[in-house]
Amino acid sequence: INQEHAVFTLMAELDLCGVPSTTMRLAGLNECDLNAMLADSIRAFPRTTKSLSRIVYQKTNGNPYFVKAFLKSLVDRHILNYSLRERRWVWDLRRISSEDITTNVLYFLSQRMSALTESAQTALKVLSCFGIKVRKSIVSHLIA
């Protein structure tokens, strides 16, 4: 994401208010590790998934979250699917290569969030204020 994103404005405001925060920069998977993960996931030899993983790497820059989401979208649209006849996973490299997928993970996440109902979005917004742990009673109250 770039510096104009709302999350950076929020972080700056929190900093001005003295709220402690930690910024972490995470590197994505390298192409070799992504290929090993992909091959393991679909139970294939790494040499057979190399061309697929190369395209997935180019589209996701190795971001593990985005890799998972991108692969799920390919499966959901039957571009990557299990062939009962061939007894293995098959894919269409040309179609995958031509996919117009953004490399911005936050944009992809916001697209998924906007597909949720308004009440689910509101609940998630409120829950996000509690950090990484929320008591079950709070969640129950929000759902009710």
Short description:
The chain has helices at 6-16, 31-41, 46-60, 64-76, 93-97, 105-114, 118-128, 136-143, and strands spanning 80-83, 88-91.
What order do the helices and strands come in, and which of them pair?
Blueprint: H1 6-16, H2 31-41, H3 46-60, H4 64-76, E1 80-83, E2 88-91, H5 93-97, H6 105-114, H7 118-128, H8 136-143
Antiparallel strand pairs: 1-2
Helix pairs in contact: 2-3, 3-4
Give a verbal description of the structure.
The chain has eight helices and two strands. It has 144 residues and is mostly helical. Strands 1-2 form a two-stranded antiparallel ribbon.
Q: What is the averaged pLDDT score?
A: 85
What is the spatial order of strands in the main beta sheet?
1-2
Global shape: extended
Distance between the termini: 35 Å
Radius of gyration: 19 Å
- Amount of helix: 55-70%
Which key features would you list for this structure?
144 residues; mainly alpha; two-stranded antiparallel sheet; 8 helices; 2 strands; 58% helix; extended
